[in-house]
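Write out structure tokens for Cytochrome P450.
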Amino acid sequence: MGVLGVLFLVLFLLFSFCAALLKWNEVRYRKKGLPPGTMGWPIFGETSEFRKHGPNFMKTQKARYGSLFKTHILGSPVIVSMDAEVNRYILMNEAKGLVPGYPKSMVNLLGQWNLAAVTGSPHKTLRGAMLGLINPSMIRLHLLVKVDEFMRSHISDWNDKTIDLRQKTKDMALLSILKHIAGLDKGPISEAFKPEYYKMVRATISLPLDLPGTSYSKGLQGRKKVVSILKRVIEERRASYRSAYCSDDDDILDTLLKTDKDSKFLMSDEQIVDLIITLLYSGYETFSTTTMMAIKYLHDHPHDLEQVRREHLKIREGKGPQDAIDWEDYLSMKFTRAVIYETLRIESIVNGVMRKTTQDVELKGGETNFDTFMYPDCFTFNPRRWLQEHVNLEAQKSFMMFGAGTRLCPGKELGVVEISIFLHYFVTRYRWEEVGGDEIVKFPRVDAPNGLHVRVSNY
Ligand code: HEM
């Protein structure tokens, strides 16, 4: 046999081996009652196609197999549902065994006590503690004034500068949460914390392979340092107490540490650390990406920008330059809220929630944010759709941008407050122009990989 013949034989064997592997993996998951779909390679599944094409991968599979299909991504076999009715059923039925099923990488990096990872009574306890910290009345009485002070001071010197909104909103998101949680300002602790935290966040959407140099392995190193910094902060805080009683100046960490020994919300240090990481992770990207994209949409829709600006200038009319936003002012920001919701809808900032089954579940099964019945002309940015008198979209059953059921986002109002207050100071103080040339990608997360640069000047 000549060299060509050997080469042909090797290629043939390789091809047959790959085909057999793919077939074996398909057969392994061929179980009665499962929806159609493909499972890709053993272990890796279709992760690389998913990472490369993201939403388009989902759309292609949907076009091939319908709104309910199976695949294998990020180290687990999964069933994807792009049907609003099925999604609502899933979110409302944790008690029937449809519990959160975030990928192993996410759970290992965010911690075993992360709210999204726990179920049953630990979930009830931790969720109760979380709601106690960031519910609307806590925001009205304690957090709003802190958010106001934080936002106004962080954007006070942007005149005549080129600002990378991506970096600024990310830094602000992290610093703002660190400030609410542990009173930490910009300084050595937050500077040491930042790179480790970013490593950890980046690795949450990766294959859980702990090999040197992989994103996952760097993420695990990041988590180790994040945990050690938070533990040190907790120890120092404990050592500083003269009284175990709560006071009005307490931040979230004080509230957690001073919890009465008889309280049902008493937590171990491990649980406190993971709760802080939950707060950081959940509030970080939702604030930074939504704010960056809302500014992008307002820039591209000057008519909407004018309406937002009018709303905020009206609020400032009765106030001196140093007067803070109060709860009534916030409630009057109706168009701003509509802009935030429309940005969340059209950008799908949270592009899916994950569940796993603990028992067999029968489902009777569109991309819910682009349901043409609920959102006519669904690909157009139109904040006014949220202000219709005869239909309250937020109250519809298929409105699930903040989840539903027992996992409904506890930070929804805090998130909207933070973005609204940022927009308040940004649009009343400044005008801005995009420098241009920056790219926005939608996957694995909505992002401007090289930044979103704007030239800012006084309004
Ligand atoms: C404004 C933008 C936000 C959006 C669009 C959003 C969206 C969501 C969604 C869809 C879920 C459900 C996840 C699931 O069912 O598995 C969720 C859960 C959660 N969110 Fe948010 N969120 C936002 C802001 C925040 C903020 C600012 C915080 C806290 C600081 C927060 C904390 C949480 C937590 C802790 C959970 C888990 C709840 C549980 O498992 O019981 N979120 N969020």
